[in-house]
Design a protein that fits this description.
Layout lengths: L8 H14 L6 H11 L6 H9 L1 H11 L1 H11 L4 H31 L3 H17 L1 H10 L8 H11 L9 H11 L4 H34 L2 H28 L3 H17 L2
Length: about 270
């Protein structure tokens, strides 16, 4: 069987759309990109796998734009002029450490055993069931939860440890960190905001690592214009998804996302029979 050719602009735009719409909502962007690659007939294409990490830069830019005031606050905190900003910066650094350390140790086995449609479908289904089980917790935290400025470093570490579960593709980093935030006492919108902010150092590290390690492979697999198109599409769709999800979470629950995950998992497992 011949290797697939370079990624075309339509494929790059499709993958960018999938990345942007799913990165920050609890349905697993990695899982969806694996499924999209499978549907495009590119399962196991190393160049495409590396490119899928790079288009996360579009999602990073979206959050940087939407939460620019938080980043200014953290910069003031770094300069010693804003205690709340310094506390948030410390919490993000503490929260990202577990995933970075464990990711280095487990990347090989994860890539080898879990980056396939069946493990993704199982994780999607399991995550959907967990979301339904945690819906009473979300309702309770909407009443008794605290804001992001009240988060302690110990609570941030707890969220970071829960984030490690999302290394199984299909679980969803957003799902793990939002539920982790609710578990340590954050209100739903605050849990979502911390999830978005916590994603940035993780995504930045993954993108930088992929560019350094697989830059030549990506260049051979995706034309610069197609790569740029995918990143732009990811940025625009991620911005829309974040704004829509925060509004939804503030007024409704996670149940529709849980049902979607379970139905998608069943559809994938049916096609894999």
């Amino acid at each position: 069987m011949s290797a697939p050719g370079p990624l075309g602009p339509l494929e790059a735009a499709l993958l960018g759309l999938v990345e942007g719409l799913t990165e920050f909502i609890p349905v697993s962007s990695t899982g969806h990109l694996i499924l999209a690659s499978w549907l495009l007939g590119r399962t196991g294409d190393p160049g495409l796998a590396a490119y899928e990490i790079v288009i996360q830069s579009g999602a990073i830019l979206a959050v940087l734009g939407l939460y620019r005031e938080r980043f200014v606050q953290m910069l003031r905190g770094f300069a010693g002029r804003d205690p709340a900003g310094r506390r948030l910066l410390v919490n993000l650094l503490v929260g990202v450490v577990p995933a970075l350390l464990l990711g280095v140790l487990l990347k090989g086995p994860i890539d080898r055993w879990l980056f396939f449609p069946r493990p993704v479908a199982l994780a999607l289904a399991a995550g959907g069931i967990v979301m339904l089980a945690c819906e009473p917790l979300r309702r309770r935290r909407a009443v008794d939860g605290v804001g992001l400025d009240d988060l302690t470093w110990r609570q941030a570490l707890g969220v970071g440890l829960v984030q490690c579960v999302a290394m199984w593709p299909g679980t969803s980093r957003s799902l793990a960190t939002i539920l982790g935030g609710l578990g340590v006492g954050l209100r739903p919108p605050a849990a979502a905001e911390f999830s978005f902010l916590l994603a940035l150092p993780t995504l930045l590290a993954a993108t930088a690592y992929s560019l350094v390690k697989d830059g030549a492979l990506i260049a051979a697999s995706v034309a610069p214009s197609s790569a740029l198109l995918g990143i732009v599409v990811a940025m625009v769709s991620a911005a829309l998804a974040v704004k829509g999800f925060v509004h939804w979470l503030g007024h409704h629950g996670l149940a529709p996302f849980a049902v979607y995950r379970i139905l998608l998992a069943l559809a994938v497992l049916f096609l894999l029979r």
